[in-house]
Amino acid sequence: xxxLYIAPTPSSPEVDFKFxxxxxxxxxxxxxxxxAAFYGPIIAQLKEYLAQQSGRRIVVNIALAxxxxxxxxxxxxxxxALNGAxxxxxxxxxxxxxxxxxxxxxxxGQELSDDFPAIEFTNHAxxxx
Amino acid sequence: MPSPLIAEKYGSFxxxxxxxxxxxxxVGYFSQHIVAAMADAVNLQLEVAGVxxxxxxxxxxxxxxxxxxxxxxxxxxxxxxxxxxxxLRHGSVCIRQEADGRFLLxxxxxxxxxxxxxxxxxxxxxxxxxxxxxxxAYRRTLREDAAPEGSKGAGMGxxxxxxxxxxxxxxxxxxxRSAGESPVFYLKAAI
Lengths: 129, 191
Description:
The complex is a heterodimer of chains A (about 130) and B (about 190). Chain A has about 130 residues and is α/β, with parallel strands linked by helices. Chain A has one domain (about 5-125): Transcription Regulator spoIIAA. Helix content of chain A is about 40%, strand content about 35%. Chain A is built from three helices and six strands; from the N terminus they run βββαβαβαβ. Chain B is an alpha+beta fold and about 190 residues long. In chain B, about 45% of the residues lie in helices and about 20% in strands. A five-stranded antiparallel sheet of chain B has the order 1-2-3-5-4. In chain B, a hairpin with a 5-residue loop joins strand 2 and strand 3. In chain B, helix 5 packs antiparallel against helix 6. The chains are: A alpha/beta (about 130), B alpha+beta (about 190). The interface of A and B includes residues 10 and 68 of A.
């Protein structure tokens, strides 16, 4: 399937899913007007891609500076899908980037890590510019 | 020739704002672009004022949640609502700093009368919860399968603000408006 790329806007993240090299990245801010409308198609493609993988090593990079309440839900659903793929025999490595002073994002990453143990989580604290 | 009446007439508006330590105030239509621009302004304001990072983040988060609630739910729209978004709705938001350093975030917007009942129930329930219960409700709602009906988000907006607030959220309705006018919903959060 084709790679998925969506350019960032001030309130929505850059989506760079390189399906061909199994590297999926999400970067920027996430507070789109309608999170379900924004993430719906993205999650659908993600699930389609994951359903085709077996025994694959998939690297996921998430570097979001902020996500609103509805984005949080969508993110959760995405990680859940990735966990499913990991349980199905794929190796999913998730790099979780957060500002070193941002406890909210750090804690959310930790919660995801606890909820989805099949995924290999690595936390990366980033120094503010 | 200077017009001495200007300061007399309009100075009081600005000095009231200063007295109330208003650091941001907007009344008008809310759209995604407008909210994004305001978020930038608020962030810059707080940074320049030397507000610590964690507080800035909580204020930013609560501001976005409140402003997006206005985008989605204000009864005063410029165009018929469409599922794809692009809505433009009216309301107001204000950020004040109290003498003890804490911030108050207030917002107001007209709402459909039937929404008032729903909102009152939701917010009264929230007020009765401890911080721990709020956190648990947040985690539970996150894991639920579908968003509440009529909600364009995850139904977690109020929980998100309540979780960051220093005290239970306060709210009020102004239903004593002229016939045909929508009631106004007020929400106040202390950060």
